[in-house]
Amino acid sequence: MTDKSRNDGAQNAAILLKVAQTMAKLGVAPFPRNYELFYEALSGHNAELTRDVAALGSQPAQNRIEQIGIRYHLTGFAAVAADTIRADTVRSIAAMSGALNNGIARKEAFAALLRGFIDRLETDPVAGMSEFADDAARLRDAVAVFEREERAFATSMNETVALLGGLRSDIEVMRKASMRDPITGLANRIAFSAKLSALYDDGNAAGPAALALVTIEGLRDLGESHGAAVAEKALKKLAPVFRKSIKKNDFVARIGTDEFAFVFHDVLAENAEAIAQRIRASVEGVQIALPNRTFTAQTLSLSTGIAMALTASGSVDLFTQAELARGAVRSSGRPGVLVFSAAIGGRTKKTYAPHAA
């Protein structure tokens, strides 16, 4: 294990310890989704979320925690949001069904009144005018009530339809949010897992494709030295660079703090390597402004491991190969690009360092 890996592990452990201590102090249940929420709050990625969590105070009710998690579309709260939407949908449909049943009953009662009035006219032609007037008045009142109830039912139906439409919108927002990284707006690890699996839908590679696993070298140090907000700004600056560097049918996702994954379609190893080199060069050209240093900026670089879909036995094997290639680059101490090969342990494949670009 390299010193950098040990430092990264120590940093992650320190953050998780701080989250656990804060939750214990506030009396928050140790659910995985709560850890996610407090991690986001303590990391300072979203100032508004941090304020909302701070406002919870000690011994916060779980439903208040879940309201915040759902409001900010955190992945861990997707199941809670889905349960809430499902419950709201059941209530709405039940209310609509009840209103419909009541409406049918009212219509049947009104129809019975009409039939009775018609029968009276047909079977009792000598009925007095006062009796006829009384029946007509009752019918008139019934019509008025029926009209009011029909209008109320129509209003209720429209409100229910609008509510169901809103629930559908909420579901779509939740679905998109659960597949997106909140900082970069790129796909997240969940979306990446689905993409990776899709490369081997029938057990075989769908076509010539490459997986590139990337570590942004210098990003963790940037965050440690200048704060999480600076690292977040760097990520937001790099996200459009990544988008512009790939074809329309290619794919990029943020899968870790400083880790990204690219899927290049319809490429050979040489093409994938060239694309990764261009992306690395683009990243190295981005200037990251440092706080309180007007004339000083920092640059970042990439360590990239590439594996080819056609030479892997499946999605897990493909990921493992790309990870091994990236690990070989990082162990060299120089950012670069490496395509996996059977002889990777012997370093027979050329590693492209920054000066060789």
From TrEMBL:
It comes from the Bacteria. Its EC number is 2.7.7.65. Residues 207-342 form the GGDEF domain. It is an enzyme of class 2 (transferase). It holds the Pfam family GGDEF. CDD domains: GGDEF. InterPro entries: Diguanylate_Cyclase, GGDEF_dom, Nucleotide_cyclase, Rev_trsase/Diguanyl_cyclase. Transmembrane segments: none annotated. This is diguanylate cyclase. It comes from Rhizobium herbae.
